[in-house]
Automatic annotation (TrEMBL):
It holds the Pfam family Acetyltransf_7. Residues 1-144 form the N-acetyltransferase domain. One of its GO terms (molecular function) is acyltransferase activity, transferring groups other than amino-acyl groups. This is N-acetyltransferase.
């Protein structure tokens, strides 16, 4: 198993993985396709096993108004037949060790039971526009002291 940055020649394989990992949703694959189509700055890694992409992770900018205030982790995906084997956890641990990730506040909208194992904590501030009461909104290195609604790249709002 190898972890590498996603390269343009593997975009199609990453999209196929996202379709498999989220079979009832087209949102995740469209999100990543739009990141690439629009040239949005995204930090992406994939886990490769036997020349097949089996996991994917991405981080995009988080905003306080027009100012970048951190990174959003989304999506994290693992090919269904490789789920529940620690591969997503290993990919996340790898990403958390990368300089660009270590230097930023991180936000994630996800399962607290999973993400708290990696140092994410519930955050009251900023407010997540996609999560009523921030019940599933977590962060690392969050120093927000005044209220604001965290912004996402425009691709998150596309249907």
């Amino acid at each position: 198993m190898k972890i590498r940055q996603l390269t343009p020649e593997n975009y199609g394989k990453a999209y196929a993985l996202l379709r498999q990992a989220f079979p009832r949703s087209t949102y995740e694959v469209r999100l990543v396709e739009n990141f690439h189509k629009n040239g949005t700055a995204v930090h992406e890694w994939v886990c490769i096993h036997r020349n097949t992409i089996i996991a994917y992770i991405a981080f995009s900018n988080a905003y306080n108004g027009s100012r970048v205030c951190g990174l959003h982790l989304a999506p994290l995906a693992v090919k269904p037949e490789f789920q529940k084997q620690g591969i997503g956890s290993e990919l996340l641990r790898f990403a958390l060790r990368q300089d660009i990730i270590k230097e930023n506040t991180l936000f994630v909208l996800g399962n607290p039971g999973f993400y708290t194992k990696f140092g994410f904590e519930h955050c009251a501030l900023p407010v997540c526009p996609f999560d009523k009461n921030n019940a599933h909104f977590l962060s690392i290195r969050n120093k927000a002291a005044s209220p604001f609604t965290v912004g996402y790249e425009s691709e998150f709002n596309r249907k």
